[in-house]
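[stage:ingest] chain + small molecule (MTE)
[stage:ingest] validated
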Amino acid sequence: MVLIRIPKPWQIESQPITSETAYRQRRRFLKSMIGFGLGATIFPSISCSRQTDVGGSDLSKTIPKDKLQGVKRSPVYSGDNLRITPEADSSQYNNFYEFGGTKNIWQAAQALPTDDWKVEVTGLVNKPRTFDLDDLTKEFPLEERIYRFRCVEAWAMVVPWLGFPMRSLIKAVDPTSKAKFVRFTSFYDPKICPGPGGWVDASGLPWPYTESLRIDEMAHDLAFFAVGIYGHRLPKQHGAPLRMVTPWKYGFKGAKSIVKIEFMNFQPPTYWNTLAPDEYSFEANVNPNVPHPRWSQAEERLLGTGLHPAVWERQPTLLYNGYPEVSSLYGGV
Ligand code: MTE
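[stage:predict] done
[stage:export] tokens:
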């Protein structure tokens, strides 16, 4: 059940010529609707059904199953003292706006075509490459890392990712000294991705979904590319076959289903920061002391700890989501 109030067409005023005030108000409303949550912080949706086998057989042409078997857990990010979120919960409460604006997009996301996936790595690098998944998993040893995950909407989870550190990819493509930022682009095809739905016009949104890191952020040991989760391939709703994981930042920094990675000498525009810069900063580091303009970030709700998000357990948000080792990237603050 989705408790989002999307106005019916007859509830939206239509006028042949929109006044400037009306235009601005509408833009603000649009922003507040699509600016995360579509009401999720107030009335989040939750699926009533439970499904654990979410890998989907058509992922077989991505990463061979056996490559993910027996992958060792990192002794550094072993998740001691962390309670792993049940897969049945994390795999059915997702954000993937290309496939819908609610948390129930896991079925719609199965439309993502994952065969013959390629990732182009280009820009200010000495060794540009187009990797297929076989290259990636052969060249970069896989490990399992258990990370905390904090969405800007104030829900949180703990997830065992399978993948490799982003710095291994940096080393392989050898950026030039001019490279200062890296842009990550998600898959997008308007014929396949309907967008958030409701009355939001997907064609007006800044597709494809892109995110970006400073190159020194990307080189931090915590920055990770995931190709799997809970010991198997990444299901489509989590961003198969390759996604970013930057656990000290809000979840929207982690672009899903990456097709392109560009090293650049300027800070590129990114999806949410373009839509609502006052709400979604470029840096987006988790910080309990910096409220979102529409809600507090002091506490977080733990995904799946109750029958409805409104009653999920709460806990205090930690600076950098509990990864103080990144503070050196931000002047030690
Ligand atoms: N990547 C793409 N391409 N599209 C998206 O809508 N949503 C982001 C991020 N990556 C998003 C995306 C947001 S807002 C969050 S919180 C996380 O994905 C959610 O990841 P999950 O669904 O795997 O938990």
